[in-house]
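User: Predict the structure for this protein chain, please.
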Amino acid sequence: MQKRNSLMWVLSVNVAVAQPLRIAGRTVLSAIGKRPVSGPVSVRPLGLEGDEQADLSVHGGLSKAVYAYPAEHFTFWQTVRAQARVSLWDEPVTPGGVGENLTLDGVTEDQLWIGDRLVLPGCVLAVSEPRFPCFKFGAVMGFAQAGKLMVQSGYCGAYLGVIQPGQVQAGDAIVLEPGPREVNLRELFKAQMAGRG
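Assistant: Here is the predicted structure, written as structure tokens:
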């Protein structure tokens, strides 16, 4: 879809149902393999229509209903996957490729603060917390160090709560309404990950 008259916009809307994923000799359920969908998608308090989360202890819920990720980081991930030469697929990192529901263009983690609102034509979402890497992310990226690189880079993406349900589609312009601007998303991610080490 054509870019609208906005500096921030939705490049892609991505969903998946939970399916078996083979990782290190065991099978786990995962919905990390999101794929782009066309047309409007309903946004509900617990996420997008047609999307699932396999492990509700770490994904989903009211504060993590939607996961957004900047397209600006795809080049980084493609480069490190090529250097690792062990990816599961010989294909580029594309929308949905890191498990995100919304692939965004024009906004990165350092520009987002907890409580900021993303106002779209058909719904309103609020930045609630960063995404933390798990073993499934490393498996999809194709190398075990992917989670460590997410921590080092701060390229974590944002979990969003649904303030106003409605619809979202590729091409939607985003208006960023600042929240209290007390806690930056990337700074929070790095601080919380440092506390786990």
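The chain has four helices and 13 strands.
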